[in-house]
Amino acid sequence: MPLSEAARTAFDTWPQWHLALDCPPTIIRRLPGGLTNQHYVLKAGSLRVVMRINNPDAARLGINRQREQKILEKINGKAFAPAVFYCEPQQGVLVTEYVEGTQWQPDSLDNPVKIDMLLELIAQIHTVSTGIPLFDYSAHVRNYWQRLLDSDQPFPMSAQRLYRSIESRLSAFQAAIKQPVLCHHDLTPANIIENSEGQLIVLDWEYAGAGLPLIEAIGASRYWQNIAFSERILEHDEESEALKLAGDIVDFYELAWQHLR
Predict the structure, then answer these.
(1) How far is Cα 90 from Cα 69, in angstroms, rounded to an integer?
(2) Dihedral (CA of 113, 118, 124, 126) sign
């Protein structure tokens, strides 16, 4: 299979992977999709692994690779995360186990049992709180806004209206987060795999950080579009104004991401 220069450079790091390999891995295929990065499935010894080649313009997309690396180190070995064999942001490479299982679909939550499973998964993720780098929502939103301004492409007026409505309150919103916990921030159906034992495993931790469960809940509600799930995950005690602000923050950075990706 022909490889780009970036993919070849990433592939050549194989002697440094935390695997006992006597010979180079074999490329099986390139995974389809992948809105941000390139992914290849490889056979490495007796294992199948996924090699990710990072998007070279991560900052434009609000991705902090050093934060991601620290989080992957922290959660390596957790049941809800794939094993990591190599992570080197400077070289733009991540190698993880290939997770065998069924990728969830947008209608998966039509099954009430799966709603329970997803809620339990989110609760498990949120139990991790120590040693997790902070996710700065204020900086994230401001970065996206500046990237939109710097873009040579027109962007939706709705993004400008949203930003103007939240900009003056961003710093106070961030400062009010007193007990942040690990949040994935991208719990879309495409990032959820159910293995043969019924364990849910979450992919793509590049937007994760110590954050606010309410933001996670609103984002997940938007991604899944399931009324029963939304009613349960949005059972928070926040005042309506705080809930509205959090929702506007999520809506802004999702809208900006769609434009910038």
Answers:
(1) 11
(2) negative
Task: Give the E-state strand segments of 166-252 in sequence order.
Answer: 181-183, 192-194, 200-202, 209-211
- Paired tokens of 42: 């490889």
0.90 surpassed by pTM: yes
pLDDT score, position 113: 98
Q: Per residue in 145-173, pLDDT tens?
A: 999 999 888 888 999 999 999 999 999 99
Set out the domains of the chain in order of their start, with CATH numbers.
5-97 (3.30.200.20), 102-260 (3.90.1200.10)
Q: How many CB atoms lie within 10 A of CB 218?
A: 22
Structural Rg of the chain based on CA atoms: 19
| Residue 66 CA to its chain's centroid (Å) | 14
The DSSP 8-state label assigned to residue 135 in this structure reads P
Q: Please, which residues bridge with residue 181 across strands?
A: 211
Cα distances from 44 to residues 2, 11, 21, 49, 201, in angstroms, run: 18, 11, 7, 7, 21
What average pLDDT score do residues 23-50 get? 90
Round to whole Å and give the CA distance between 61 and 82. 23
| 143 vs 147: CA distance, rounded Å | 6
Q: What is the pLDDT of residues 69-104, one digit of tens each?
A: 999 999 999 999 999 999 999 999 999 999 999 999
Closest CA to 93 of 149, 38, 160: 38
Residues 208-260 have pLDDT tens digits of 999 999 999 999 999 999 999 999 999 866 678 888 999 999 999 999 988 88
Backbone φ, ψ for residue 51 (5° rounding): -105, 120
